[in-house]
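Exercise (ungraded).
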Amino acid sequence: QVQLQESGPGLVKPSETLSLTCTVSGYAISSDYFWDWIRQPPGKGLEWVGSIHHSGSTYYNPSLKSRVTVSVDTSRNQFSLNLDSVTAADTAVYYCARRRQQWLGSWVYYFDDWGQGALLTVSA
Amino acid sequence: SSELTQDPGVSVALGQTVRITCQGDSLRTYSASWYQQKPGQAPVLVIYGKNNRPSGIPDRFSGSASGNTASLTITRAQAEDEADYYCNSRDSSGNHLVFGGGTKLTVL
């Protein structure tokens, strides 16, 4: 069974860079699928942040694209999120997740495994 | 604002049936997936595609789609079904992913 676990500093100062790592166990991330980051500000809904395909291709939310980088370390079976120039609006629970895409008469994309989430607070 | 629109809140009497909808132009081309999220927990996939359930999800959860609308139906609603439900699919450009704003389901 695939397990994902986020890790990060918990608190970041405004204008600094937020860095989070997702450690995957039970599956080699270089083998297949997309590996995504999703965030949820306190009391609000889910927002897709970005992803990396097992081939190395990356995809980002257009509203965050200028500030976000997703990378992978296959030797450690980890993928990471960097978000530059953070503000209080970036305070959220950040989830990492495995995403599949499948043709079922039309394309469907779904997150079948999630980490437990990591709260990142932006504050001086 | 999200390109996938959900009603903010829906209620259902215990044991009855409720439908949660998700509207968006991209749903004419791409299928939706549905997630259940309880307070303090990570989302859980309950339906993907028109009507596919992951293992372990009760068969009282089902999905459907027509035109620009995807629906999640819960029959014989239980108290433990009270949660936030989110739909997810591509955006209208087809290049990025987007979530609906979420629907809070209250079981009365």
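Further reading is listed at the end of the chapter. For now, observe: Chain A has a mean pLDDT of 95. Chain A touches chain B through 26 residues (CB under 8 Å).
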